[in-house]
Every structure is written in structure tokens, then in C-alpha cells.
Backbone:
């Protein structure tokens, strides 16, 4: 995954929830812009228990919007490999 692909979702205004899926199957859903910061090579995010986690952008396989009903929409990030 490229940083630009993540930025496309993170920078949308008004903000729209999205989910990232890692190559090992882990999923992280972002429903508020306050939950994360996108750096050059990582996403720093708040976990449910308030801890900061670091997600390597290189390990992200897909970025998908989350629909208004809370379900993932089947759309891959544009410009991917």
C-alpha cells in the first residue's frame, strides 16, 4: 500500500469512516478523524482501551470505506499495486 492511498481516505472532508486490513488479516476501523494520524510510513491510532498502536502502511493490503450501516463496502483503494 502507498501512503497516498491511505491519505485519500484520511483526508476526505467531510470525513467518512474507513477500514484498513493488514496482510495478516487484522482489521482496524476508523470512525472519527480524531482516532488516528497518518505519518510517512505508519498510522498511529488509538485502540479501544486508549493505547497508541502503530500500523505499518507497508503491511496494509486494502483500505475500504465503511458504509452508513456500519458494514464495509467492497472497494479497493485506487492506485494500488
Residues:
Amino acid at each position: 500500500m502507498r501512503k497516498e492511498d491511505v491519505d485519500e481516505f484520511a483526508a476526505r472532508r467531510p470525513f467518512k469512516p474507513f477500514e484498513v486490513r493488514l496482510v495478516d488479516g487484522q482489521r482496524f476501523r476508523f470512525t472519527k478523524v480524531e482516532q488516528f494520524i497518518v505519518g510517512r510510513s505508519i498510522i498511529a491510532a488509538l485502540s479501544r482501551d486508549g493505547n497508541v498502536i502503530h500500523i505499518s502502511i507497508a503491511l496494509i493490503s486494502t483500505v475500504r470505506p465503511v458504509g452508513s450501516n456500519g458494514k464495509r463496502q467492497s472497494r479497493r483503494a485506487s492506485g494500488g499495486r
